[in-house]
Amino acid sequence: xxAIQLNGSKGNxxxxxARVAVTSAAGSGQxxxxxxxxxxxxxxxxxxxxxxxxxxxxxxxxxxxxxxxxQAFSQWDSRIxxxxxx
Length: 86
Description:
Strand order of the largest sheet: 3-2-5-6
Low-confidence stretches: none
Shape: globular
Distance between the termini: 29 Å
């Protein structure tokens, strides 16, 4: 499993609305979006979790302000923290 935590810019530190695409070295991909809310009197975690395919891969983040960033990774059983450049 790969866990990704995003830190956004001022006014949106949890990066609500950001989309993340994870692509494995074999070319398979998964996507997820950070959203706010949940159910009555509860809130969902802002962390995103991805299933474990084979090999290394790449994370593409599409930030709510329209910019994007990428980062390669080599381990699936890890947690990655990505910070939006100001």
